[in-house]
Write a structure and sequence with these properties.
elongated; five-stranded mixed β-sheet
């Protein structure tokens, strides 16, 4: 104030000297410059003196401001709603005389405890509609005489409810649209005294900041989930297109063969019996191939809906293997591929659904044939190691890159290899195989080397 007054007086004197010429201009200009320099030099000291005076005379206001800033920084640094609740409870417990502080999150009308300090009340509860409406429109609900200098003017129902849960204050955490995100219950000071005005204002202000942070985090989470849902829907759309395209391609091939040979038999009445038998075998083989594809799709649909059922019984693994080989014989003959089978006469039985295990082997043999683009040599070996029966399907095909090993059992997944772009399939076979094997308490494993082929091994427990 002294420096401001001095600057003002000197400015008046300078103005006078300029107008009337009675004051020496240069001398007073020098005084102004010195005054400003002194003011600049002593400004840090003035700030320090101001702080000392504030702390001595207005300590409550200074402490309130510092505590509020500290708690605000702590709340705004939170990265999740749960962390906000924890920081809120921990921070308030350090700066108030409350006997307990408990934060509850609103989960579809049920308030569930998420952070607490001291002897807190129940873990979860419902709020009456009148209380919920009240919390959406007031800074806090308080019991009568809970805050010094204030008397609660809410209804007796609120007073009774607060007394029942043992809380003196209920502070809402709400959005700008007055949606209650949660509440904070505060017990009265352990000394039996009332909250003073500063404590009450601190509780209200900190809860208001926490509400802003919670609303921001929830909005961010909602935006993230919406983006994730959008991405997932786009991915599902791509999978749907891929699935329809793949299945259509798979269905078209056997249907084309069936139609072509059926038309040949109808139009050419003079075809010899040997050719007729050959064409009928092709039609039968393609029909079985078509039926297997449709069966795969239907079975996968049942698996996805959780309604796939199995008929377990003591089963001879050798017979199951032979049936699978017979079902695939047409495809191997048509592709001029070699299929070697090794099944010992004496094998322990397995407790399994024979049709499901046959389906597993057919899928593995079909994959082995499809991915044997050059050397078409596939083997099926069945053996026992005492407690397990092992089915091993080995090929000398293109193999699977190591980077793809963790994904091949995912539904609709296809190995990303330009050489295999023309290989058909809907990407369901291995996903279905894995589900069937696990439903039989078995395991599936594989080894694969690019350019040398793959070996898939199914291990099923021996029947007890």
């Amino acid at each position: 104030s002294f420096l401001i007054a001095t600057t003002y007086i000197v400015t008046v004197m300078l103005t006078t000297s300029l107008i009337g010429g009675s004051v020496i201009f240069e001398e007073y200009l020098f005084i102004v410059i010195v005054t400003l320099l002194v003011a600049a030099a002593f400004n840090p000291l003035r700030n320090r003196i101001q702080k000392v005076v504030d702390e001595a005379i207005f300590s409550a206001r200074v402490n309130f401001r510092d505590i509020l800033r500290s708690l605000s920084d702590r709340l705004r640094a939170a990265l999740s709603p749960d962390e906000v609740f924890r920081n809120l409870v921990d921070g308030l417990s350090l700066h108030t005389e409350a006997s307990f502080i408990t934060a509850f999150v609103n989960t579809r009308g049920t308030f569930r405890r998420t952070a607490s300090w001291g002897d807190s009340p129940a873990k979860e509860f419902f709020l009456p509609n009148s209380l919920l409406t009240g919390l959406a429109n007031v800074k806090a609900l308080a019991r009568n005489n809970a805050v010094a200098g204030r008397r609660n003017d809410e209804s007796f129902e609120h007073e009774e409810w607060l007394g029942r849960i043992g809380a003196d204050l209920v502070l809402p955490l709400r959005t700008e649209a007055k949606e209650v995100l949660g509440i904070v219950l505060v017990g009265g000071p352990s000394s039996g005294q009332r909250f003073d005005e500063d404590e009450f204002e601190l509780l209200v202000e900190v809860c208001s900041i926490a509400s802003e942070v919670l609303e921001r985090l929830i909005l961010q989470e909602r935006i993230f989930l919406e983006n994730e849902e959008k991405r997932r829907l786009e991915e599902l759309g791509q999978l749907k297109t891929f699935f329809v395209s793949s299945v259509s391609h798979e269905l078209r091939m056997p249907l084309t063969s069936i139609r072509m040979f059926a038309e040949t038999l109808r139009r050419h009445q003079t075809i010899g019996k040997k050719k007729q038998r050959e064409y009928l075998e092709i039609i039968e083989g393609e029909s079985e191939r078509l039926a297997r594809l449709i069966e795969n799709v239907l079975d996968f649909s049942k698996v996805e809906r959780g309604v796939k059922e199995y008929n377990f019984a003591d089963t001879k693994p050798g017979i199951v293997a032979q049936k699978a080989v017979k079902a695939m014989s047409y495809q191997f003959e048509n592709a001029h591929a070699k299929l070697r089978v090794s099944t010992p006469r004496r094998l322990p039985r397995i407790h399994a659904d024979a049709d499901a295990i046959e389906e597993v082997l057919i899928n593995l043999l079909s994959n082995a044939l499809k991915y044997s683009t050059t050397t078409k040599d596939v083997s099926l070996k069945v053996r026992s190691n005492g407690s397990q029966v092992l089915f091993e399907v080995k090929d000398k095909g293109v193999g699977i890159p190591e980077s793809e090993h963790g994904k091949i059992f995912e539904a609709f997944y296809r190995v990303r290899d330009g050489q295999l772009a023309q290989v058909g399939g809907a990407g369901l076979g291995l996903a279905l195989v894995k589900h069937i094997v696990e439903a039989h308490s078995g395991t599936i494993s594989f080894t694969s080397t690019v350019g040398k082929g793959s070996t898939f091994t199914i291990s099923l427990p021996v029947s007890k």
